[in-house]
Amino acid sequence: MTKSEKFLQLELDSDLFEYKYLGVHLWALIRTDIFIRYFSEIENAHPDVRTKTVSAVLKSLVLILAKIPKHLYHRCFLQKKDVFCSTSNVYKKSQGKIKDLYIDFFRDTNLTVHNHTMYNPLKSNDIIYSGTNDSTCRIREFLSIIWYRILRSLGFAKKSSEVVLFLDQIEKAYDIHLDDNYERLVSVKAQRFLIRKKFYRKILKNRFKCVVHGFHYWHAGMGLISAAKELGIPTIELQHGLADKNHPAYNFLDSSLINEYFPDYFFTWGDYWKESVRLPNGSKAISVGFPQMEISRDLLKDAPKNEKTIIFYSSQIRELIMLALSVCDRLVDLGYTVKLKLHPGECKSWRTLYPELKNTSIVILDKPINVHELMASAKYHVGICSTVMYEALAFGGIVLVYEHSYAYLMSDLIEKGYVHPFKNDESLIKLITENEIRNDYGDICTKLFKQNATRSINEAIRAITG
User: Fold this and answer.
1) How far apart are CA 405 and CA 335, in angstroms?
2) Is residue 73 domain-resident?
3) Which structural domain, as residue segments, surrounds residue 300?
4) Could you tell me if residue 227 is inside a domain?
5) Which of 39, 388, 10, 27 is closest to 247 using CA atoms?
């Protein structure tokens, strides 16, 4: 039994889907986080909590307040439409604009469903959208968290016995330790889920034929899905990244209790992904393609590829950054150009996170860039676990995977020989300089990214909405 299979079996044997707080199934809220920690053998787990400076918090609050009139207008005067679209919050530069590539094609292509007009409810990049529909909802979340913390600090809000028992069961099942912050995290997530669900019920009721969204496994996404299902509105998730046998959000055994928070349909980029996932009972994967990838591959099919360019793709894992530093000078001396594509979450803070990168021969890519153009321009692509590794493969690149603990997400392609693993800096240099590796993988690329994506999506949504 693989470790992924063991995780799935343990969650059933431990009845983790059964635990509730405020009527919310708790396991759905933190399942992905626990899976990653279990798979990476992190014994003492701490929740990922991103802290913001006071100025950043105040700036966000001002932006939210400024959108309240727009929110109230949408809530009170929004007319009936066919499709409700929620962003994936994944932005890339394409055709001169910063776009949410997994949602914006609805607006930017000739996709039509019953002559509908698309409507995007969530805050997106200002280059594309002018407002947000969820401002008052976000303020309620903010106030509820502040109030909860005040009560906890004064001793009026005790730890929830349901949550404590739930976390104890997780610790026993997976033999990991969860620190005290998890109790607060789970309690707050449940409250935020309920706020979002109530909000979306009012927005969706009697207005839409289906919901299309970017990803489900966070409190807002689950709140949206749960509200839509209560109203009998079909929900569709667009694939936005890795989704195979090693991704916990798309793999289940007997999981009927999570159906309330999981989309009815999962639109995959190709047959490879459709065949790799195991969705909850009642959910269906449909292979439709990835419109932006299809457009980019057609535009860049004749782009020249530099045989001496190596691109490292950061997954916010420090070991990869240090690896790039350790091989950079030697590769440059051999005539190679080494580039580092930073993760969007690192672009503004990399000088603080990785001061070692200053004054090196690595070309730092920390500005918005057309990633597909970047992939098409280089022969070698180095990373650990990222969607871009699959995309680079489709652009004819040689993909080299650093054998870090998170590389399990690439295990299927490694086993089948489509990507090439390495253990350290010496083995990486040897792969690049001594081995003549070729990309003759047209078969897997066709399975990864199905053709005629726009037409396939069009037909699938028409079938779903009737």
Assistant:
1) 31
2) no
3) 296-448
4) yes
5) 39
**Rounded distance between C-alpha atoms, residue 423 and residue 425, angstroms:** 7
Number of structural domains found in the chain: 2
Any domain includes 94: no
Residues 285 and 346 in one domain: no
Instruction: Judge if 356 and 407 occupy the same domain.
Output: yes
Q: Would you give the DSSP letter of residue 101? A: T
Is residue 170 domain-shared with residue 147, that is, in the same domain? yes
| Residues 107-145 pLDDT 10s | 554 443 322 333 333 333 322 222 234 545 566 666 666
Q: What residues form DSSP beta bridges with 278?
A: 251
**The domain spanning residue 387 has which CATH number?**
3.40.50.2000
Same domain, 196 and 327: no
- CA gyration radius for the chain? 23
**Taken in order 267, 271, 274, 277, is the CA torsion positive or negative?**
negative
Q: Is 265 found in the same domain as 353?
A: no
- Residue 307 near residue 334 (C-beta atoms within 8 A): no
pLDDT of residue 301: 85
Which two three-digit tokens encode residue 140? 């309620």
Global pTM value:
0.80
Looking at the structure, tell me whether residues 267 and 178 fall in a common domain.
Answer: yes
* Percent of residues in the chain assigned helix, strand, coil, to nearest 5: 50, 15, 35
Q: Cβ–Cβ contacts within 10 Å for residue 165, how many?
A: 11
Q: Render pLDDT for 394-426 as a digit per residue (tens, 0 to 9).
A: 998 999 999 987 787 788 888 888 899 999 999
The CA angle 117-122-126, to the nearest 5 degrees, is 90
Give the integer Cα–Cα distance in Å for 132 and 67.
Answer: 6
**How many other C-beta atoms are found inside a 10 Å radius of the C-beta of residue 79?**
7
Single-letter residue type at 438 = R
Nearest to 27 by CA among 353, 229, 260: 260
Two tokens, residue 7: 């995780």
